[in-house]
Amino acid sequence: MVSFKENSKPMVIRYIIRRLVGMFFVLIGVTIITFILSNLVSDPITATYGNRIKPEQREVIKNQLGLNDPLPVQYGRYVIKAVQGDLGRSYRTNTPVLESIFNVLPNTLVLAAAGLFAELLIGIPAGIIAAIWRGSILDRIIQGITLAGLSLPTFWVGLVFLYVFAFLLKWFPLGGNTQPTSIILPAITIGLGGAVFYARLLRNQMLEEINSDYTRTARSKGLSGRKVISRHVLRNALLPIVTWAGLDLGSFLGGVVLIEAVYSWNGIGKLAIAAIGNLDIPLIMGTVLVAATFIVICNLFIDLLYPVLDPRIRLR
Amino acid sequence: MINYGKNLRRYFSLTFLVVMLAGLVLTACGDNTATTAATTTAAATTTASATTAAAATTIAAATTASAATTTAAPAATTAVATTAAATATAATGVKPVAGGTLNVSYKSNFDSSDPVVGYSVQTWNVEHQIYIGLLGYDKGTTLVPELAEALPTVSADGKVFTFKLRKGLKFSNGSPLTAADFKYSWERIFDPAMKSPFPAFFLIVKGAKEFGDSMNAGDGKVKEITGIKAVDDVTLEVTLNDADQTFLNIITMPQGSPVPKAEVEKHWDADRKNNDFYKTAVGTGPFMVKEWSEGKGITLVKNPNYYKAAEGLPYLDSIFFQVGIDETSAILKVKNGDIDMTGDNIPAAEYPGLLADSAFSKQAKTEAVVAVSYVFLNNRMKPFDDAKVRQAFAYIFDRKKVLKLINNRGVETGVILPPAMPGYSKELASTNLRFDKKKAKDLLTAANFDFGQTITFVSDDSDDSKKIVTSLIADMKDVGIKAEPKVEQSEAFFKDTGKEKNIQIGIISWYQDFPDPSDFIAPILSCDSAIEGGANSAWYCNKDVDALELKARGITDPKARLAAYQEIEKKIMDEQPWIPLYNPVATLFVGQKVQNYAFHPVWGPEYSQLFKTK
Description:
The structure holds 2 protein chains of 2 kinds.
Chain A: H1 9-41, H2 44-49, H3 55-65, H4 71-83, H5 97-132, H6 137-151, H7 154-168, H8 184-210, H9 213-220, H10 225-253, H11 257-262, H12 268-278, H13 281-309
Helix pairs in contact in A: 1-13, 5-6, 5-8, 5-10, 5-13, 6-8, 7-8, 8-10, 10-13, 12-13
Chain B: H1 6-32, H2 34-49, H3 51-64, H4 73-77, H5 84-92, E1 101-105, H6 121-130, E2 135-137, E3 143-145, E4 153-154, E5 160-164, H7 179-188, H8 199-202, H9 208-217, E6 228-232, E7 235-239, H10 246-250, H11 261-265, E8 287-293, E9 297-302, E10 318-322, H12 327-336, E11 341-342, H13 351-356, E12 364-368, E13 371-377, H14 387-393, H15 399-405, E14 410-412, H16 426-431, H17 437-446, E15 454-460, H18 463-478, E16 482-488, H19 490-497, E17 505-511, H20 522-525, H21 543-554, H22 558-575, E18 578-589, E19 594-595, E20 599-600, E21 604-605, E22 611-612
Helix pairs in contact in B: 2-3, 14-17, 15-18, 21-22
């Protein structure tokens, strides 16, 4: 993938290994923090049964779940099992956590991909138009809309979309992910929220590039405006977009909580929220671990992609 | 300006146009139509998205809840109809239509459809479709035989119950059901690997404690519960430690239903620590599990081996309990006909709007549940260790204001037992609805109440609780009592109520496990329950009351028994450990195609009686 002189193959491999080791420690850190926080809140048996269960029975269940062991022992047991691919079982449903996560993972993947696609599909053209026609009425309108878009909470937009396009006009299903068209509204909602950000980011980046010396040189050498924009300005301006898109993808894969809630989309975000509500510690740990893994992997991926986009960048 | 190709320009302009149009449509439609949705639903979503806090409370509240009831009390007295079809036609005037799928929405996942594990209203309502036991309830709360051919014979001392099973009973997988299956199923509750919350209910059976202790210790010394005997294939004999009629209610809870040993044993994991029987969930109810998928829901199909299959029951071919549907979207989905009814309550913010909307008000069903929400006064803490102070407090609180604050999702009450609970006394209820702030002040002064002290009023963090406490504190201030609110996360709140001298005063609710008055006394108002980690939040203990209650349990004559419980209730209310506020209601939204809808006091919607018009 990275094939230029400055970034030789062994260097890249060494870089990846170093990052993977780092990732491992990040994930350990994340699980420790999650574990401590979830155990600080309360005990899961009370969370599940309230005050309806006799104290003796509470003890029996705690023993069965190993909750009477000291926290470091419990954590150690968790890590040993996790490394072997066993994330434990939900306290509430007794379902294996991995099974629960894999049940909803495809939904999350679809939503993340569609959301990112929608963001970029709307955001990049809008940014380019605004930059090319900077100062024009079109630019101002885009600026205005993006400002409004940034300020509108996505869950509100989602509710309005559901009400208008699904309930009144009946173009789309009212939430859920039972039909192929179910994805459209959630994707557009994510898209609009994110697109405004990308549009503004891209506009500013492109303006910087358009006003730079090399662009003027390219123009003076007789390159057409289209070529200057596509080969030079856009390519350089896209770098931060890639960074953010990568980070977005990582966080989307960990679940888009509000969108999932509004659109009744059963993804990892909803699973995590339900787990937190029930203080279902194994499920909380599992969903957080999966989300964190996606984020660190996407991060690594972007860093590896950098030198491809901009040969001046070197991996260290 | 930079000059670029025509095509590129067209592409950009088109995309831009689409974005602009979308924006315009959004703003235009948003103005008139979306406002109601946005404002009303926003509140609901805020609750939902204030996730950890508010949602946790709702879930905790739902978890503790066990069953629900209808206000249609007269229906309770109706005799069991001869054939189901006749009932259905009589009730609705529409001839039952067989077939079809009923779609019901829920927000949360089901806990476990294993009857010895699941313990929430949501799960019980569905479990009841999969599992039934020896006995059931008629339309009200009177016990009737289900898998048993008649009510059991009871020995003279009230300790031995003998059940005769119907002939030819089968589980939904076709395997025959015998008396031995009940013994196996009830002993299974004590297997520590099942992590069941229910063993305490069965400790009244002779030998159950010894069996449970041995199972927990894992010493294998006690092999069975000696009090449960499968005399032959159709005869089951159960011996209790003491005469106790509540045993019949206990075995009518879902965990009292039989499950087939062969099927359960298939589902252990390698080290026998976890059992996945919930996935196939084979039982004897009107429906059986076709698919159980976390994140999607549970699909049930008609059980061909249901003992009432010959009567054409259930009418529906299948039910899909879909999970993950936000409560607000669920309302829109019912309106649109995408789903047939909500399993969850109508969101508080939507409720008044639906009732006011003539197009939908008939579909919004309000059903009282067998539960009570009350103010508890810690009998072991100052100032409530003084009965006179507690009696004075009974005059302070304005119940009507409380109900208004929660959009009238409740009915005011001044007594412990809810209206649908056998033993409910109308007379006691009406005399106990006290509200007279002047009298309260006089009584407090007479009791030498110290008006200088500040009382801490504790509640969980649900929206309703916070609103109610604000109102109650305002009432206290009117009388000259200083008070401040303290809100705790629900788990912490439950734990704190279970500590002896921790919370002076607070609000909490109790939902029935089974429709017998003992369920509102023993677990929450007995000396036995006034223990660390118990549910007696008022820490009330009166040995006389306990003795009366123990005696009442054994009385076999129903009339005499209920009279005994009324006396107990009156005795407790005289000491005023609580100030009952209201009986909560369930609020369901039911689509127009759903016919013969009925809400059972214990089981919620009667799915096996429902049918759908085309």
